[in-house]
Amino acid sequence: MRVNICAQKDSCCYKKGSESLKASRERFPELEISESGCLGICKTVVAEIDGKLYSELTADSLAKLINEKLKG
Predict the structure, then answer these.
(1) Do you know which InterPro entries this protein is assigned to (predicted)?
(2) Calpha distance 69→19 (Å, rounded)
């Protein structure tokens, strides 16, 4: 599974995205979780998981989503 989290420096999502990026990497060290540039949806935590965009996330809801995807 590949996860990209929008955390572009100097963007509106940087603070929330950076927090979610750190939390996700700590919770799922076995996954490839990367910082991405803008994913086109602003002011929310936005993640791309296996090519599909998810928005209006929190660190906790992102972790729940990743867990659901891992369980298949």
Answers:
(1) Thioredoxin-like_sf (IPR036249)
(2) 21
Residue spans per domain, the chain: 2-71
DSSP 7-47: --TTSTTHHHHHHHHHHHHHH-TTSEEEEES--S--SSEEE
**pTM, two decimal places:** 0.73
| 6 token code pair | 């929008």
Question: In 3D, which of 34, 67, 59 has the Cα closest to residue 48?
Answer: 34
Q: What is the pLDDT of residues 39-57, one digit of tens each?
A: 777 767 889 999 999 988 8
